[in-house]
Amino acid sequence: MRIHLICVGRRMPGWVEEGYREYAKRLPPECGLHLIEIDPVRRVKSTASRAAREEEGRRILKAIPKGVDLIALDERGRSWSTETLAGQLRNWFADGRDRALLVGGADGLAEECLARSRERWSLSALTFPHPLVRVILAEQIYRAWSLTQGHPYHRGDATQ
After folding, report:
1. What does pTM read for this prediction?
2. Which residues contact 27 (CB under 8 A, 6 or more apart)?
3. Residue 107 to residue 111: CA distance in whole angstroms
């Protein structure tokens, strides 16, 4: 199973690329994390947020691999604990289909991306800069995987 992380944004600061790579490389091939970067809309003063979000949404939808289960990262989504994410990961492995996690740009995800997603996942009630979200996702996926393997990285209760 692969997890495709489809994110708006390219040319991230070094700390973002380094943080993402650190956790992505810790995952085994059977739980591979694959980053797909989407070009953000080039902004000028007259570019409306909605227009930018919709264009980025079209770009995201074009980049989605066939047959994947879509999960949108959205502040209005359901919050998952680490243990819940580990349970989701177990279910994803049992199902066998690849997953795609959709991360919008500065203006969020287009309605069409949200509508096509099976589920909406909120990382927090806080608002994070979208480059930081890739690092958080990579670390949390690694943490959830380590929990499913009984690896000591996560210090929480593995029986939940």
Report:
1. 0.88
2. 33, 141, 142, 145
3. 12
Spatial separation of the C-alpha atoms in residues 24 and 28, rounded to whole Å? 9
Residue 39 has what DSSP assignment? P
Q: How many whole angstroms separate alpha carbon 141 and alpha carbon 31?
A: 9
Q: State the Cα–Cα distance between residues 96 and 92, nearest whole angstrom.
A: 6
User: How far apart are the C-alpha atoms of 38 and 75, rounded to whole Å?
Assistant: 20
User: Which pLDDT tens digit goes with each residue over 123-159?
Assistant: 998 888 888 999 999 999 999 999 998 877 766 654 4
* Residue keyed to tokens 């099976």: 118
pLDDT score, position 160: 44
C-alpha distances out from residue 100 to 32, 50, 60, 109, 141, Å: 12, 23, 11, 14, 13
* CATH class of the structural domain 2-148: alpha beta
Contact of 18 with 113, CB cutoff 8 Å: no
